[in-house]
């Protein structure tokens, strides 16, 4: 098959929040990630749920032996890996989830995400879109069991640089090491300001 959309392995076809990554936005430099004013504190159950969904879904794709590793914050913020997807959560819940993967893992995810075998060149071409789609599925799955109604997920904002980092007043993060590469997850709750987080050069 030559069409990307026809080659995707939709592991959660019934997921209503699952959407095409083709609408994602890409960022190569500094900027801000904003939300409408809504002074909600963070929910302590959200991040553990995200990690549980992430570990389960990555295992389903065939990314095994996920090892949790420590992550230290520098003065300029938390560093990102090579390809990062930011998913804004709005409505009855406010905040943002980030999934960040290095080139090696993002390309392996592209291979695992396809029904057919793909070349190394194709894996590199599809890596960004795959990270966006994986972030969508994980975020939606982690919110599936919530009792609240009116939870909305924004289209992925893609950050394509290892020189970028995230700076936020409040956050939770967990890094992983796998045989295929590294990744990390972030949860940034909505605080009492319009700006959720800043994308900074590190």
Automatic annotation (TrEMBL):
InterPro entries: CheC-like_sf (IPR028976), CheX-like_dom (IPR028051). Pfam families: CheX. The keyword Signal does not apply. GO terms for biological process: chemotaxis. Keywords: Chemotaxis. The keyword Transcription does not apply. Residues 83-168 form the Chemotaxis phosphatase CheX-like domain. This is Chemotaxis phosphatase CheX-like domain-containing protein. It comes from Cohnella faecalis. The lineage of its organism: Bacteria, Bacillati, Bacillota, Bacilli, Bacillales.
